[in-house]
Structure formats: structure tokens, C-alpha cells
Known about the structure:
Elements: E1 3-6, E2 10-13, E3 17-18, H1 32-44, E4 49-51, H2 64-72, E5 81-86, E6 88-91, E7 100-103, H3 107-120, E8 126-131, H4 140-153, E9 156-162, H5 166-175, E10 180-184, H6 195-201, E11 204-208, H7 240-260, H8 264-273, E12 279-281, H9 288-296, H10 304-318
Parallel strand pairs: 3-4, 4-5, 5-8, 8-9, 9-10, 10-11, 11-12
Antiparallel strand pairs: 1-2, 6-7
Helix pairs in contact: 1-2, 4-5, 7-10
Amino acid sequence: METRILGKDLKVSAIGLGCMGLSHANGAPTEENEAVRLLREAVEDGYTFFDTAETYGYKEDPHHNEKLLGKAFSGMRGKLVIATKFGVWFDYSENEYHPKLNADSRPETIRKSVDESLKRLNTDYIDLYYQHRVDPNVEPETVAEVMSELIKEGKIRHWGVSMASEDYIRRAHAVCPLTASQNVYSLIAPDESLFSTFEELNIGLVSCCPIAKGLLTGAYTKGQEFEQGDYRRGSAWFSDETMDKTQPLLDYLTQLGKEKNATLGQLSLAWMINKKPWIVPIPGTRKSSRLKENAGAGDIRLTAEEVAGIDAAITIGTT
């Protein structure tokens, strides 16, 4: 798989793997041996960039996902780029399927989090350490200063933010340069309002939910049922209204796919990586077939006219 550069010098595969769904938000977690097998298969398929977080787990094992990566990647650490996150914790006391998200980016919490993540990941450094969500009680300068210290100590090599505003990004970057920002970005959530900021500051965009949790594959229909613990259950993305609005876009992609010999999911990924050299999508999957399919998106070349055509189809689907 081809590679891209996030920030100044973080080299990653053009398509990364979002690992959350193996442990969290997609219903019951994947059986451990199968998850480990899939992660190792991803390496064989050319993935080098793997995204997790300290909170990707479930009530009985809230840090399940990091431990999976630590087990799967034993002995191959130097070949891979691992991103994980700090700054939130889940309260499972009221709803174990949709726990309440709480922010905490106090310096002492960050230091505790990084040390525990290093142990679970079975590594002595983290390639990319994200602030998972902004903590309204902690200034960005304070968080950035801790990141600067962790970089000097060798515990992390790069840092980033997730779902942060332009003002927050600029203030944090001024103290310790950011390598990446992780945001929801896809054909049904095509917000490019921060693009000029990313280009000015040389910050990469890591796109989470780039296929809209599978919606853009065309595999789901109206009335789709999802199991308890699957965050798609009740999601507006899978409502009948959204399905109807998205259909013209899917029809357009279907026709383009015939011309490019590509699937809907591949075109959804190719659209963004052909837009900017600093965008890296991290689709998740539990299936070997999807793993290979998504990896193939990195080889699809779209002309400026084809990208513009997809942009026009997006407009039809969102009006």
C-alpha cells in the first residue's frame, strides 16, 4: 500500500485501520483470537496505521481494544504506527450499551493514561497520541505543554486532537505542533471548514467513520436492525430519511464504480484521498473481505472531474 505523511514526518499507510469496532460500539466484541488474527492479517495486507483508544472496550473490560493490539503486534512494533487516545472515560452505571462520555484532560490524568496505555499496548512509545475530546475545564495550552513533555520523555512521538475547534487547534499548535486532527469526514459528513487551517499549519486529517459506519457501502437498507450495543441502532445515519437522501449519491457511485471497477466503499475512500495528500481515512471492519477491499481504495485514481462529480452528487443528497 502507498504511504502518506501526516504533519511534518509521520509516515502512515494511505488507508489506516480503525480498530474500535472490534471491541466497542458494534455490538458484542469480536472473539479475541479472531480479532488478533484480523489485525495481523491487516499488516500482511499493507496496513501500517492502526487507531485505538484507552476507552474502546465494554463494561467488563473497558480497555479491551488496546490490549488486543498489544497482543496482536508483539514482535512487529517497529513496522507499525499506533495511535491511541486520552482524555475521556465512560460511565457505564446507567447504560452499559451507550455509556455516558466524560472529559478529563488534567495533566495528572494524562500522565496516568499514557503510562497505562503503554503497558496495555506492550510498547515503550506511542506514535500518535490524541486528545480524544476537548475538556472545557482545561486550556489547550495546558494540554499541549504536557504533550511537549511526553515527547521529550520519549513516551509519545506525535500528538493530535479530535473534534476540536479552529481556535483550540491554533492555541494548542502554538505550544506544541500538532501532527493530526481526527474528525468525522465522509460523503455524508463532508465538512471541509478546517481544511485551510490544516494546510496552513501542516496538520493531517485522519478521517474516522469515512464510510459512515457502512452506510456508504450500499449494504444496508431502510428498516435495518442492529443488535444492542451497536451504535448504529437508532442512529440518524440509518434512518429512512437519511437512506432516501443518500440514494442518489449511491446511485451515482454505483455507475462510477462500473467505470472504475471499484465498489461503493472504495470510491468513498478514494474520493477523500484523491482530494488532499494529507487526508488518511481509517475505516473499521471485522471482515477479511472488507479489509482487502478497503486497502484497494488506495490504488484508485480519480480525476478532478470525477471528484467534482461526486461532490455534486453529495449536494443532491443533502438538500
